[in-house]
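User: quick one, fold this
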Amino acid sequence: MKDKSRTDIELTPLKAKIETVFNKRNIDEDCDTIANLLSPYRKKVHESISQGNYAKAVTILIEVLESLTYHFVEDEHYNYFDDMYSPDYVCQDMMEAIINGIKNVNFPAAELQRLKDGLEKLKHTEAYKDYGVPYVLDVWEKFQR
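Assistant:
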């Protein structure tokens, strides 16, 4: 059973750009093209954290992860890699930047809660329940312990 229809998502300008990354034409071995196209978002997360714009960093991470979990199942990304799903590594780097921001600065409680809520929602997706994607949810859980 696939995740619910995408008709209920709000297509913000950021979300629309992220969705173009997951275009089926970008699927290749290990989904490397998708990972490469996600790299600017990784950079934006790092910059946002260093500039104290935690809301932007959380928004980017959650929106990328939402698109990743949907397209992983919908477009059958699991058929394109053996042991390395490259987009997950990019997302892991984004998550680690946010975790370091939480550890090293006074991360706003509202943004921390928004992050927790967004990640909790992703735990109930088919991609995570059936495939363990995105792996960053495990990274987050280890951090929470």
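User: anything notable?
Assistant: Residues 1-5 have pLDDT under 50 and may be disordered.
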